[in-house]
Write a structure and sequence with these properties.
Blueprint lengths: L1 E6 L3 E4 L19 E6 L5 E5 L4 E4 L10 E6 L6 H36 L17 E4 L2 E4 L3 H13 L12 H17 L8 H16 L3 H22 L23 H6 L2 H10 L5 H20 L5 H15 L18
Antiparallel strand pairs: 1-6, 2-5, 3-4, 4-5, 7-8
Helix pairs in contact: 1-3, 1-4, 4-5, 4-9, 5-7, 5-8, 5-9, 7-8, 8-9
């Protein structure tokens, strides 16, 4: 029996968007020039290229740092430590992909809101669409895979369209998006109930599903985010005994505190009702949330039909809930096309 160790790669590259470009492109070589480099709170160093590919390098000090890969050769059953190591590798890559998509969601959600455009060209980065990369003389060279090659080829072809100029980001927009990612990374430390990164990624996934007219899946996913954010608002506004309002909890209300026992027994409908009756939610917002909650229940219990309009309404509700918890403008709202 032989066990060999090797280091799992500490870097990966994704193409998170099919439309946005990050610097002027005159020749094919310009596509891979590094337009920005920034640090994500020690978790990863991010390299953005002109074409819009995001490269992530995870340092040894990161909670997403590379670990050893165990390879077994020999007769007999696979040793337990090798099987456990395989699980550890899967877990690491899963957490990395969550972080990668969180960065994409935070950046493009900010860009979309600031430019007053729906989320355009969003691509969800799965483990099937990643590549290794290196950096030489201010440019990125990637280790091509079939799936990422198709996505990049499609984006290069998009350069031939006049429309691409609408999605050329100015330096100020790029810098603001990067600053926003850093701001969100700090804000997540104040969350006590919801996982900010996971919620933002689910909201991002739901926006992509809505754009593809997978309305039921989009609504179901976004309603999970609605529930998590509503609970988070309740806690962050100091509405539970022994909690105090967070610095960002600035909207006025007249809600009395509840005990921890009461809070733990409350349903999501009760949480929403209290936030409404205490004037954190206005009449129109409460009506919209209640309507979506009914549609979600009918979907889950009766398989009711959900329309793109329903999933679009759900998106705007999530956008409005984010405004209680993170700096605005920010919205992961995508449009959808249809024929008349």
């Amino acid at each position: 029996m032989t066990l060999k160790k090797s280091k799992f790669p500490n870097r990966l590259l994704v193409l998170p968007n099919a439309k946005y470009f990050f610097s002027k492109i005159q020749t094919t070589n310009d596509l891979w020039k590094v337009a920005r480099i920034f640090d994500c709170d020690g978790v990863a160093t991010v390299f953005i290229t002109s074409i819009g590919a995001f490269g992530f390098i995870f340092p040894d000090s990161s909670n997403l740092a590379s670990i050893d890969v165990l390879k077994y050769s020999g007769n007999g059953s696979t040793p337990p430590e090798v099987m456990e190591n395989e699980d550890d590798i899967h877990d690491l890559q899963l957490r990395r992909m969550l972080f990668v998509n969180f960065v994409s969601a935070a950046f493009f959600g900010r860009v979309s809101a600031k430019t007053h455009r729906s989320l355009a060209g969003a691509l969800y980065s799965g483990q099937d669409k990643i590549a290794g990369f290196n950096i030489t003389q201010g440019a990125v060279s990637i280790q091509w895979t079939e799936l990422i090659a198709k996505s990049i080829k499609a984006k290069v072809n998009y350069l031939n369209s006049v429309k691409w100029r609408y999605y050329f980001l100015r330096d100020s927009e790029i810098d603001d998006g990067i600053s926003y990612i850093k701001n969100i990374l700090q804000r997540q430390n104040n969350f006590e109930y919801a996982d900010l990164q996971s919620c933002m990624v689910m909201n991002y996934q739901a926006a992509i599903l809505h754009n593809q007219q997978h309305a039921a899946a989009s609504l179901a996913l976004n309603f999970s985010v609605i529930e998590s954010l509503a609970w988070e608002i309740f806690i962050d506004y100091g509405l539970v005994d022994e909690t105090t309002p967070k610095p960002f909890a600035i909207k006025k209300h007249n809600i009395a505190k509840v005990s921890k026992t009461t809070f733990n027994k409350m349903s999501i409908s009760k949480v929403i009702e209290i936030l409404y009756k205490g004037n954190l939610f206005n009449d129109y917002f409460y009506q919209r949330v209640s309507n979506i909650r009914e549609k979600r229940n009918k979907l889950m219990h009766k398989g009711a039909i959900i329309s793109p309009k329903d999933s679009g309404d759900c998106q705007t509700i999530v956008r409005d809930l984010w405004a209680f918890l993170i700096d605005t403008p920010f919205e992961l709202i995508a449009g959808w096309s249809y024929l008349r």
